[in-house]
Amino acid sequence: MSTDTPAQSEPNEAVTTAPDDDAALSDEALIAAAPDVLANSIGDYFRAWGTRIRNGESGALPIIVGLIAIIIFFQIEQSSFLTAGNLVNLLVQAATYIMFGAAELFALLLSEIDLSVGFTGAVGAWVIAELIAAPVGLPWWVAIIGGLLATGFFGFLQGSLITRLGLPSFVVTLGGSLAMEGVMLELANVDKTAVGGVININTNSPIYKLVSTNMSTTLAWIVLVVGLALFAALTLSRARKRRAQGLTTPPLGITILTIAVTAVGGVVLVLICNANRGNLTPLRGVPWVVPFVVFVLLLWSWMLGRTRLGRYIYAIGANPEAARRAGINVARVRTIGFMLCSMTAGLAGLIYESRLGNMSVDFDGGTQVLFAVAAGVIGGASLFGGRGKPLHALLGGIVIAAVFNGLGLMGVSAAVTDIATAIVLIAAVTLDALVRRRSATLS
Amino acid sequence: MTRNDNSMSISDGRSPAGTPAPGSGPLLELRGLSKSFGPVRALTAVDLEVPPGQVTALVGDNGAGKSSLIKTVSGLWSPDGGEIVWEGQAVKLHNPKDAEALGITTIYQDLALCDNLDIVQNMFLGHEALRHHMLDEPTMEIAARQTLTDLSVTTVRSIRQPVASLSGGQRQSVAVAKAVMSQAKLVIMDEPTAALGVAQTTMVLGLIKRLSGRGIAVMLISHNMNDVFEVADRIAVLYLGRLVSSGPATNYDRQSVVEWMTSGASGRAVGTGTAA
């Protein structure tokens, strides 16, 4: 297609309010709008990213730079930060934040907010814990299904109130959060074995072992190699097929680079986890929670990227009116979005209780909600709907865990930790806002 | 892929101005269409014929009833009186889906595009092609590219670029291509050039001509007389909810149209349009 076209990126306003847009932008600026599809070569691609960064539209890049800065800072302050033992610990801490962030992502993508994810997760965790404990004693997987049904049903209730009655999600989920806290307290109340509002997870249960046991070092390598081979084969064959059909395909170099970066990340992760981190007895291996989180994120990425439901979630987040006119059942998709949000929160609750080995009414659902939103926004998802991927929750969750972990190592007080976390969160939101303003004034 | 076999008309240009193709009745006919809101009469006994393959410009001052008319024809409002005749059959439109099922697509000024989705995704929104329950991107991309090529929309750099990165005219083109994909027989366009500059306007007007060249009827709502006389085969003037004049565009000139629009009458000799 022709490359000497007058075109420019516009702010996200209706076309009626857009200024006269005959002025042509340079080719460079146009490619920057969507480097993945507009770049003709890998050189173009990197130049486009340079432009994007100068324009303040850099996606996940600032967060990666920020993460590196955080890591360097803590490593200088506390040399034990970059040890295998601490990094694995950090990963496990991050798992909860990542999963809560992935839950909140569904609400954010729909341009809504779910303030109940924290206590919804807690109720999910309580339900699972009650179902595997005496006197119920169900198998672990039935218990997880039970937890997902409970949280999914609650998400359905909230989603229905929001979509059918047109209530603001802010208010419904704020009330929902309180209701879920009540349900949690009541569950603890009814269960006489939950002494002091704490229910212990049987250490023999896979629910407990999810976080506290590891894959064997060999298995980790096998899973990694097979996973990477599958990923590479699928990506490359897809690119080849598309190229053969004459479809838009990113430059081959980009595809290979993506695979290479994923491979390096995976190898580093397995190397760290497989290093001995035990003090007296050897302790090595990837905690099972890591593949669990990766699996859920991949599942949601597939759903959002490759299915109609996912496409509709993005469409509704950007322009619900357009979605409605396209014949999409907007209320249904949004309700499903809230259900997926609540169910993913239930999985976050599962990781939480597995890490602690028990579930307690002391669970701080309010703070968890904050971190859930923060994980998404810090990672690069937009608060304004339609933009974000599960990958963003992953990055955001790791940043939050790194801040907590590093400050914990430094032995600072809870007060300082809270304030520092708040600063990171507000810095991320500020960045989001600045990026939007910058890109709005530029075009 | 059968969505894109819209090769009903091969004529390389437009149909001769003002004359429907011989032997075919109007695509859409409004007979005595009325719509009131309490004491406010938005439309009063409007009679209008929209022939296939032609551009009918609907003009009128603010409050003349243009919006009421297109909202009724696109199924958003049901009329209080009169009937809508589509391809010779009286039809009842209860909602926009009914209209779309018949082949009436309305492109509002806001275009109803999702900025975060790319051109292909927008063109297929709500009608995605599936393969093994997953989105069939290759099929959609090929069909979308074909439609854009047919409409001579070649200025976009990649059909995989997000709509947010398109110019106003290009966005309008995507909205039109979306209508063509949905097998529309009548495309209603509400002020398509209102926000556009000169070059972009030319592009959109060219697109309208190509649409009618493909045998698709276009109902164009516009304030801009340049645009109207550039593309319209027929002109219909609304004044205070009544259709005061309609006929082939050659029967009008700028001044007579403006007179019809502003006073509901014209003393000029050019207009032989039928008074309603």
Report on the architecture of this protein.
- The complex is a heterodimer of chains A (443) and B (276).
- Chain A is mostly helical and 443 residues long.
- Chain A has helices spanning 27-33, 35-38, 42-55, 61-77, 84-109, 117-132, 140-164, 169-190, 206-212, 217-244, 252-274, 289-306, 308-318, 320-325, 330-356, 365-379, 390-410, 414-442; strands at residues 198-200, 358-360.
- Chain A has a two-stranded antiparallel sheet.
- In chain A, helix 5 runs parallel beside helix 12 (289-306).
- The model of chain A is unreliable at 1-24 (pLDDT under 50).
- Chain B is α/β, with parallel strands linked by helices and 276 residues long.
- In chain B, 29% of the residues lie in helices and 24% in strands.
- Chains A and B meet through helix 2, helix 13 and helix 14 of A and helix 2, strand 8, helix 4, helix 5 and helix 6 of B.
List the helices and strands and how they pair.
The complex is a heterodimer of chains A (443) and B (276).
Chain A lengths: L26 H7 L1 H4 L3 H14 L5 H17 L6 H26 L7 H16 L7 H25 L4 H22 L7 E3 L5 H7 L4 H28 L7 H23 L14 H18 L1 H11 L1 H6 L4 H27 L1 E3 L4 H15 L10 H21 L3 H29 L1
Antiparallel strand pairs in A: 1-2
Chain B lengths: L27 E10 L2 E11 L4 E6 L5 H8 L7 E6 L2 E3 L4 H7 L1 E4 L11 H5 L6 E2 L2 E2 L1 H14 L17 H14 L4 E5 L7 H16 L3 E5 L3 H7 L2 E6 L2 E7 L5 H10 L13
Parallel strand pairs in B: 3-10, 3-11, 6-9, 9-10
Antiparallel strand pairs in B: 1-2, 1-4, 4-5, 7-8, 11-12
Helix pairs in contact in B: 4-5, 5-6
